Amino acid sequence: MKGEKKTKIVKTIKIDVDKCNGCRACEVICSSFHSSPKYSSNNPSRSRIRIIHDPIADIYVPVYAGEYAVAECAGRDKYIIDGKEYDECAFCRASCPSRNLFKEPDSGLPLKCDMCESDPTLDKPMCVKWCLNEAIVFEEREVEVDDEVKQDELEIGLEALATKFGLNKVNELVAQMSAAKKG
Amino acid sequence: MRYAETGFNLEIDLTRGSIERVATDPKDTELYLGGLGTNAKILWERVSPEVDAFSPDNLLIFAAGLLAGTMAPGCNRTIVSTISPLTNLMAFSMMGGFWAPELKYAGYDKVILRGKSPELVYIYINNDKVEIRNASHLKGKGSIETAEILRNELKEPKAQVAAIGMAGENRVLFASIEQGRSSASRGGIGAVMGDKGVKAIVVRGTKDINIVRPVEYLKLCNEILEFIKFREKNPIPGVIPILGVLGSPQEMAIHDEKWHTENFMWGNARTRRKDFWTEDVDKSWLETMESSRKRLISCYNCPMKCGATIKVKDLPTYMMKCFSKLTYTMAAYSDLEFGLTIAQRATEYGVDGYSAPQVMAFALELLEAGILTEKDFPDLPSTNEERFFYLLDKIVRREGIGDILANGTHSAAEQIGNGAEAFAHNNIKKQEQLPLKLSMLNPIYYLMYATGEKISITQIEGQFPQGPFATIEEREEFCKDWFQVPDDKFKQILMEWEPRGEKSNPYFPTVDMCCDIVDWQEKMHYIDDALGICAGLSSFHMKAAYHIHNLPKFISEGAGIEMDQHILSKAAKRYRTLVRAINIARGMRRKDEKPPEDHWKKRFPELEKELLDAYYKFKGWNDEGIPTKESLHDLGLDYVNEEFQRRGINNENSSDAPSKEISNKTEGEKHEG
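Structure tokens for the assembled complex are given below, as produced in the milestone run.
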């Protein structure tokens, strides 16, 4: 089965670590925007963007809060870029047990960047608006999505299940699920 | 709930080792705002004039400005107030960076240190947990080194650290407090910290700062950002580049130093080198700047990039801003690479970048003049550059001659005697000044130098142009969008101000106009110092982002204190007068209020007297510079008057003698620095 070509909008933030001057305005305005009522308080430790920085080592990496991770990584790598040594965590977006980043300071609940979702929609996230040095730049990209890709994924998944549990078991389960839905 | 401020101070008694969290009185915020204002109130109430800088009863106050840490861009200043060991007057040095907002997030507006710790300690503030901890392992460490060690051993990479180096530990009277990105350098406040036995204050905070009317406050903040963007694209025409754009002078961004190197004095504020900036110099300084500067850096929540990370060859990295780039270079008659190299060591030691180079140049002049001899400098190297390193090392350790030099040029000259006093020629109220020597008296600058209790001219000047524009067209162009003025009369003065002829320096602006202009400029700085706003976006600039028309709104929408231009001006006058009252009680009088004798070649004693008389009167001070009973009453400072009476300080109003008419003379005019 061939899928229709579709397009969708992907929201992207381009991070230029060379342009970051470490002012942390992004942290201020992010935490202000997400306070309730909006802008009524600020607190960088609640911010969903944090600058990982070490001024003496000349390291400045703005990082956005991503998914919550239950466990920390087993091993952690080091990256050396332009002679500067970065901890893997410097680029990681996860709210994870290994660090205090991206957690509400009171409750410990994970934080995640929502691109300043609001009604009415903002033309770009507040952190980007407040970064006058353009270290973080918002871009909306139109990308083509192919339905076929999803079909492929389904097939690969089913095949893996069939290999593991046998095709009969999979058939039985699909039949049961269909019946349950109808019922 | 308290807005913008936290409503709590930390009171730490180092002698007893006690720590208290004390709620502050909201009424004080209303009357004295915060930062410098409330610091002055505390010093007035708790440090009597008999207490000297190194007494356990002296307080060392670290304050976050009222709006520091809020959304307001560039609102990040820490105001450090104490009694200066250099001047025995109130010192209020300040620093940008990240420390003040962090203190607010930890839940405090101020840290107030009193007493003395018997052993070297550091203070660790982590939200509600505050501890005095042993710092014996940090003894003799550099200020940046100390910060790095503490952040690592506490596993708090996000903690902010204010630390002293060896100079502070050894009570060098021009020792600074360093914060990596910034430093509070003037008045020897680092020596007070060292005297109290405190190596560093580490702060980490994760609490909220609240704003009373968020939407309105955000709008004000956005307007600041819009103005910053506008000014970056549209520098003010017709003024020197560092005044045409916002920020602290953009010394880190540029390599072209023709203006400073040819107009400011070299050595011990001695020599002007009018043809210094050659093509070769330009090329070599460009190379030095580009190879040493790793990145331009900002302070907290500010898009300006006034600082830089500097790494010279294989020396440790440090951070720098503004004019310390040139003070060592010029004092030693050397080049930029030397300046950046020695500044690395000086930053770790923690010394004032204005005073330290001048003290060293002063010592070498005394040697040349035979007042000091080679016996005073055992094993002195031969080149100027090596000698500066040699002297710096001696001073911060208080070794040999360094022990005397560590007291600053004024006291060192007194101790050395034998004519050394004449070499301590660039001081105001015992403190070293920028190395400027000019021709024609500038009446505005005369008043600012004479009466400024902040001691550094760059922290007093700013709102009004330093000199007249040549043509009417230029003046009109300048006035066109000059909405920052509190009153249109300032535009009128600028329109009439001529480079030469009747309406030029020193008799124009007239005495009355000068009073108005100086009062306005000073007021704007005092407001910034209470709110924690950087002068680089505000009072240092002629057309600033923050000004008298939007500042009251920031206070009312942010802190919820009813405010307008009039109330704000009065509050600023109140704590400005309190600063003066502290100094008056400590013996400061009219005789102390004078610029260096040789600041201008052409002086006008009669005019200067008239200026000072008129300005004192304008400020509500008597002819000794003492706030009068009436003016104190008007500001709600009757308690100051009572104390003056109790101490027998005569603050009677001076006689209302009519001011003399002075004919205008035609004298050439020199652009003030």
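Chain A has two domains: 5-145, 146-182. The two ends of chain A are 29 Å apart (CA to CA). Further analysis is deferred to the final report.
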